[in-house]
Amino acid sequence: MTEEIKKEKAPSRRHLNRVSAIQYLYSYEFNKPENLMDGLRCYFEEQEQGREFHAFSEELVNGTIEHIEEIDEKIRSHAANWDFKRIAKVDLAILRLAIYELLYRNDIPPIVSINEAIDLSKEFSAEDSRRFINGILDKICSSLKRPSREAKV
Q: What is the largest CA-CA distance in the chain?
């Protein structure tokens, strides 16, 4: 009997950009820069791959922060029996990013945003967080007026 060796697939560039985006959004929660563009420039220039590699991440962060009030309201309305202030900051960063994608990025299929959020929660959060994040994102996804498996161009 031969043992199959399972090779780990390298994360996609977009996944790496989402990782970078949630890391920035997490730090943003504690230390908001006076000027967002300067803060982003400094952050992405310090990354191993450089700012050009992180163009998608920068788009996601800009969009998420631009719509943060609406996104937070969605979280509050769907997080039944949860005090918003008690949501773990890493979970909040993941939720904000995914909800931004669901609501404002029609070029990304909703199922991709949800799967990425779950993967990010596996990497950076507690096991119980997956169910919490998935529950909120599923509720939001079900209210969208577009197919969950297709990008809308």
A: 62
Confirm if 117 and 95 have CB atoms less than 8 A apart. yes
Is residue 1, in this structure, part of any structural domain at all?
A: no
Q: Which CATH number covers residue 51?
A: 1.10.940.10
Instruction: Please report how the helices 13-30 and 36-45 are oriented relative to each other, as an axis angle in degrees rounded to 10.
Output: 130
The total number of structural domains in the chain stands at: 1
The DSSP output letter for 105 is: -
Residue 86 lies in a domain: yes
Type of residue numbered 53: F
Range of the domain at 43: 13-142
Q: How far apart are CA 90 and CA 102, in angstroms?
A: 18
pLDDT tens-digit series, residues 131-150: 999 999 999 999 998 877 77
pTM: 0.89
| 147 in any annotated domain | no
Query: Rounded to 5 degrees, what are φ and ψ at 105?
Result: -115, 85
Per residue in 38-93, pLDDT (tens digit) is 999 889 888 888 788 999 999 999 999 999 999 999 999 998 788 899 999 999 99
